[in-house]
Design brief:
788 residues; mainly alpha; Tetracycline Repressor, domain 2; two-stranded antiparallel ribbon
Length: 788
């Protein structure tokens, strides 16, 4: 009893704790490897084995119960099947009895059917006898009727009458003379009818060729109207998207589809064709007429495909293409309505021959065109012709391939035109900030290109940070995008956004950027012009995102898709590089102007008096720097302002150090250094003030503007130091003189003579403090000389 109790307890433990985890893992089909590994690591494989056996037993019980359940259902199914067999036997008996009754009824009906057929046979024999008796009278009546049809121009009834005489009456005419006369006249009448019909058809050929141009122009006009409606819908969609992006609400549009019956618009009469073909088919010579029609239409097409060299293709291309389009529109309707006259293969053959000549002609004419607008004009009409003929089932891909192959040439011509416009814009710009006095000027030059820095309408007059180059360049770019999209749209490409973007990059890099660089490096720009050019480039760099959006909108690509994929132009990086080049050129001009003011060689480097005021050049430099920084603050971003300011200060510092090093300064004394120290203090006070007033403190708090005067400041501090020999102490040098170069310091110190050039100068040098400083300086000179 105790043993059974223990076994039961072990079995129950399989449903708890680890046994429950094992059971759940097996039920979910999970990997048991980790559980087995854990059991062996814990040294309890017997417990795991026992748990597995308990799970197996439990599953066996479940399987037995499942089998028992399905066994009972199987017994029930067998019983139902036996019941179905009994019902099938009863149904078979019923069908047998119904078939027997049907056979009895059908036998009586067959007897009645045989009687009916016999009655029909008697009736037929009587009818034939009557017809034979009336045949002679009726054939003469038909001959009279045929003559009336021919004289009245009703050829089809005449031919039908002749056929009726030949097929129905002539063989039953027993009067040989009458039969011989009728047999002789029938071919003559048919020949007369054929000649009359051919005459009418020839007149139609002349008429339809003269009308083909009008037919083509009407069909192309319908295509142009449909395209215009499509463009208007796209414009409304773009406007709705812009309003949605601006948060102005949602707009809902409904597309009105206007069903137009082309046959009501393209009115031309094919009755002579139908009539001639039908008559020839009735005469049994339809193949002869098919060849006649095909050959004559081919001759007309060959004549239409010839263009006059006396008239420029730009003037004649519309009439030429409209004539071809009209010809094939007529052929399409003939193919669809005059069944059997033309085959699809024949029309395709004619079209392939024509499209081959047209593409060759277009390629030749495109190679001669040297104006983008002319090429675009012809392209527009070619695409209209292509869409029109594609509507009629013609394969126009060769036409689109010609346009696609001319894509690069068109954009080259377009880029050349834009380059000329850009050169004119830059040449006519005064490089002064634009002043807008009215709101419409602000809308036209700023809002139209999203160049505003705030959504709040400014007060007028408004002074923009850019010159007229920016809005004029934006207009050129916008026009380029529109022209590029106009050429690439309605062609073989469905998604041509990437192509437009590629050419847009080419415009901005090869045309706009190059024109700006030429202006920067022309050597004729002053500081204000260079500063304005740099500001313009910064604005144009930001406008690149607008150009991408404009290209996407014109290509039908949702702007949110472009924003989501962070699509940008390579030109943005190039313009950024050019902007840095403009900053560099600006800085060079500023530095050159500073060099004019900083005439350091004219300073008295051996003055005997301690200076109380800064040197003469300092005021001019400060005034100039103030003017430059004030102007730059208005039109340049803070980072550019920082570059210009720090570059100018570095140049001032370098100029001061260079003045100490130059050969014209043979020697200098402490008084001269004190004068430079006063100059530096003026500069430092000035830049500290500008550091706060220009807002540069918000951009960089760790680096101040005065830090860019560090080399000259450390040099002056060293020369005025009581212990200049501390320069050779690495710790002190790193802390106070880290911007100074050994060789420069050595050269400058050799020129430093801290004793006035006058008689009895030694009596004035008895100040112990001065003596100590001079000895320290001499020690520094000696150690620098040893170091070098």
């Amino acid at each position: 009893m105790e043993v059974k109790t223990k076994r039961r307890a072990v079995a129950e433990s399989a449903d708890t704790g680890e046994g429950l985890v094992l059971l759940t893992s097996i039920g979910n089909g999970e990997d048991l490897g980790p559980i087995v590994r854990h059991a062996f690591e814990m040294g309890k494989p017997e417990s795991l084995l026992h748990q597995l056996k308990s799970v197996v037993k439990k599953k066996e019980v479940e399987i037995e119960e499942l089998c028992r359940l399905h066994y009972e259902e199987f017994i029930l199914a067998v019983d139902e099947l036996r019941g179905v067999l009994v019902d099938a036997e009863e149904l078979k008996g019923e069908l047998s009895s119904d078939n027997f009754r049907l056979q009895e009824i059908g036998s009586s009906l067959l007897l009645k059917l045989e009687e009916l057929l016999e009655s029909y046979s008697i009736k037929k024999n009587v009818t034939e006898a009557i017809m034979m008796s009336k045949n002679c009278v009726e054939i003469l009546y038909l001959c009279v009727k045929c003559n009336e049809h021919v004289s009245e121009g009703r050829f089809y009834p005449a031919i039908k009458t002749l056929d009726k005489i030949e097929k129905d009456f002539l063989q039953d005419v027993h009067a040989k003379t009458l039969r011989r006369v009728i047999e002789k006249r029938i071919p003559a009448i048919k020949s007369h009818i054929q000649k009359k019909v051919c005459t009418e058809f020839n007149e139609w050929l002349v008429h339809i060729r003269s009308k083909a141009r009008e037919i083509g122009q009407t069909a192309i006009g319908q295509t142009a109207s449909a395209r215009q409606r499509e463009e208007e819908m796209r414009a409304r969609q773009r406007e709705a998207e812009e309003q949605s992006r601006a948060g102005l609400g949602d707009c809902v549009y409904m597309l009105d589809v206007e069903e137009i019956d082309e046959e009501l618009i393209l009115k031309f009469d094919l009755t002579p064709v139908y009539k001639a073909f039908h008559i020839h088919r009735c005469l049994g010579i339809q193949d002869q007429f098919r060849d006649y029609y095909y050959n004559n239409r081919m001759m007309q097409l060959n004549l239409d495909l010839q263009i006059s060299s006396a008239q420029p293709f730009l003037e004649s291309h519309q009439t030429f293409l409209a004539q071809i389009a009209g010809h094939f529109i007529v052929e399409d309707r003939v193919l669809r309505t005059a069944v059997g006259l033309l085959s699809s293969n024949q029309v395709e053959t004619i079209w392939e021959a024509a499209i081959s000549k047209i593409t060759s002609l277009l390629q030749e004419q495109f190679s001669r065109i040297d104006t983008a607008s002319h090429l675009l004009l012809i392209k527009h009409y070619v695409t209209l012709v292509g869409v029109t003929l594609k509507h009629y089932g013609y394969q126009v891909s060769p036409l689109l391939e010609v346009l696609d192959n001319s894509r690069d040439k068109y954009h080259e011509l377009l880029l050349e035109e834009c380059e000329r416009q850009m050169v004119d814009v830059l040449a006519n710009d005064t490089y002064e900030q634009m002043v807008m006095k009215k709101e419409y000027e602000y809308n036209k030059n700023v809002l139209a290109f999203h160049l505003q820095t705030s959504d709040i309408m400014p007060a007028f007059p408004y002074i923009a940070p850019f010159s007229s180059t920016v809005p004029d360049a934006c207009r050129i770019v916008r026009s380029f995008i529109e022209d590029s999209v106009s050429y690439l749209s309605y062609g073989g490409r469905m998604n041509f956004y990437d192509v437009v973007k590629k050419y847009l990059d080419k415009l901005l890099i090869d045309v706009l950027n190059e024109a700006l660089l030429r202006t920067i490096y022309s050597g004729t720009t002053g500081v204000s012009q260079a500063m304005q050019i740099a500001a313009n480039i910064a604005v144009l760099e930001r406008a690149c995102d607008l150009f991408v959006q404009q290209a996407a909108q014109h290509c039908g690509v949702p702007v949110r898709t472009i924003e989501r994929h962070h699509s940008s132009l390579n030109a943005k990086v190039v313009l950024k590089t050019s902007r840095d080049a403009a900053y560099h050129a600006l800085l060079n001009l500023v530095n050159s102007k500073l060099d004019e003011f900083m005439a350091l060689e004219s300073i008295n480097w051996t003055t005997e008096e301690v200076p109380q005021n800064p040197n003469d050049y300092v005021n001019e430099v400060v005034i100039y720097l103030d003017t430059v920084l004030s102007t730059a603050q208005q039109i340049l971003p803070l980072d550019a302002l920082f570059k210009v300011g720090t570059g100018a200060l570095e140049h001032i510092s370098n100029s001061i150090v260079t003045a100490f090093l130059c050969d014209s300064v043979k020697r200098f004394n402490a008084n001269a250094v004190m004068g430079i120290d006063i100059d530096l203090k003026v500069f430092e006070n000035f830049v500290d003030d500008r550091f706060y007033t220009t807002g540069l403190i918000e951009m960089t708090k760790e680096t101040r503007l005065r830090d860019f005067l560090i080399e000259s400041r450390q040099l002056v501090n060293l020369l005025l130091s009581n212990q200049p020999e501390n320069f050779m102490n690495p710790v002190i040098r790193e802390k106070y003189y880290n911007a100074l170069d050994y060789k420069k310091v050595a050269t400058i110190c050799e020129k430093f003579k801290d004793s006035p050039d006058r008689l009895f100068g030694s009596l004035s040098n008895r100040n112990p403090k001065q003596n100590a400083r001079r000895k320290s300086m001499d020690m520094l000179k000696k150690r620098l000389k040893d170091f070098n």
